[in-house]
Write a structure and sequence with these properties.
With 338 residues, the protein is an alpha/beta fold. The protein has two domains: 212 residues, Rossmann fold, CATH 3.40.50; 100 residues, UDP-galactose 4-epimerase, domain 1 (Alpha-Beta Complex). Helices cover 40% and strands 17% of the residues. It contains eleven helices and 13 strands. The strands form four sheets. Strands 3-2-1-4-5-6-11 form a seven-stranded parallel sheet, sandwiched between helices. Strands 7-10 form a two-stranded parallel sheet. Strand 5, helix 6 and strand 6 form a beta-alpha-beta unit. Helix 3 packs parallel to helix 5 and helix 7 crosses helix 11. The longest helix is centred in the first third of the chain and has 21 residues. The radius of gyration is 19 Å and the shape is globular. The chain starts with a strand and ends with a helix. The relative contact order is 0.15. The structure holds UDP-4-deoxy-4-formamido-beta-L-arabinopyranose (WQD).
């Protein structure tokens, strides 16, 4: 059973490739290496013992995408991760995000249709909820006006799949991630931000290792218990395992609708300061941080209602915040001040 994973050398993609291989699936990776490095395939092999087939392909290059699929009739399903995901960057360069995330996805879907590949797992995001009216958010919580072009590309992706599922045989499972963090227990794969990290946890570990001078907490005057933003941090391995379960649900024909949506979170909300405290606890270090101004586009608080994934997928996040911090820190120590 061959599974195509776009963005498979990326952070969540690489962890999912390992879980797929360990469940006996053969994996083909398409990635343009714009935000990852080819050595990730070597590290995947070190973990699973199997080197995934890899093709350096940019989904925006329609001719190359069609060429790839031309002779392939061995692909059973696709897990689509390949996208840019830096909220701030998307505000400064919207066309880059619309081209890469939307045009790339349309090229992929056109090629899948032409080759009768009709099982699709889509990497979406809690970003689609914006500032929710009530918490925790369920899959029926309203999708709000996107706070960034990035968030909008995820909403567009879900809408494309919704419309497609009504008129084609395409079966889709949309997975809305909360805040992925942590790294594989082997410390061979993990989050590898290129340049200054946008996300909190890599910035914490890069500060702790001395690659960054100081962490700036983006505001502590929010309406939350300690004034800092609340998020639902989920271990990347828990997230990866959910993808395998979702894929298996489709392969076994258990999916009840042409398009199903699941929140993937822990159901717990933690503040920025709680994340810092957890890091200091597991590392035994004092983190150098200061309180700075709010960051444009940040929602105050969001965390998930995970009942649907728990009950229908039979999946539940198992790893806690301390484990996320410990595996992130072990990963950072292994790669050093890259
Ligand atoms: C978390 C909190 C920041 C950096 C991310 C991705 C988005 C989506 C969901 C995939 C916020 C604060 C951060 C720093 C800080 N993932 N922070 N100092 O914004 O919730 O969204 O996860 O789809 O693509 O961007 O995550 O880690 O950027 O921020 O205080 O140096 O940490 O203000 O409150 P976010 P984040």
């Amino acid at each position: 059973m061959k599974i195509l994973v776009t963005g498979g050398t990326g952070y969540i993609g690489s962890h999912t490739v390992v879980e797929l291989q360990q469940e006996g699936y053969e994996v083909i990776i398409l990635d343009n290496l714009s935000n990852s490095v080819i050595e990730v395939t070597d590290n995947i092999e070190k973990i699973s013992g199997i080197k995934p087939e890899f093709h350096k392909i940019d989904l925006c290059d329609e001719a190359v995408v069609n060429e790839f699929f031309k002779d392939r009739n061995d692909i059973t399903a696709v897990i689509h991760f390949a996208a840019f995901k830096a909220v701030g960057e998307s505000v400064n360069d919207p066309l880059l995000y619309y081209r890469n995330n939307v045009t790339g996805m349309i090229n992929l879907l056109n090629a899948l249709e032409a080759n009768a590949i009709n099982k699709f797992v889509y990497s979406s995001s809690c970003t689609v909820y914006g500032e929710a009216d009530s918490l925790p958010v369920t899959e029926n919580s309203p999708v709000k006006k996107a706070e960034s072009p990035y968030g909008f590309t995820k909403q567009i992706g879900e809408q494309i799949l919704t419309d497609l599922s009504k008129i084609s045989g395409m079966k889709t499972i949309v997975l809305r991630y909360f805040n992925p963090t942590g790294a594989h227990d082997s410390s061979l794969i993990g989050e590898l931000p290129i340049g200054i990290p946008n996300n909190l946890v890599p910035y914490i570990t890069q500060t702790a290792i001395g690659q960054r001078e100081i962490l700036t907490v983006n505001g502590n005057d929010y309406d939350t218990p300690d004034g800092t933003n609340i998020r639902d941090y989920i271990h990347v391995v828990d997230l990866a395992k959910a993808h395998v379960i979702a894929l298996k649900r489709m392969l076994d024909g258990k999916d009840e609708n042409p398009l199903e949506i699941f929140n993937l979170g822990t159901g717990n909300g933690n503040s920025v300061l709680e994340v810092i405290n957890a890091f200091e606890f597991v590392s035994g270090m004092k983190l150098n941080f200061r309180i700075g101004p709010r960051r444009e586009g940040d929602v105050v608080s969001i965390y998930s209602d995970t009942k649907k994934a728990n009950e229908i997928l039979g999946w539940k996040a198992e790893r806690d915040l301390n484990d996320m911090m410990l595996t992130s820190w072990n990963w950072q120590k292994r790669i050093g001040k890259k």
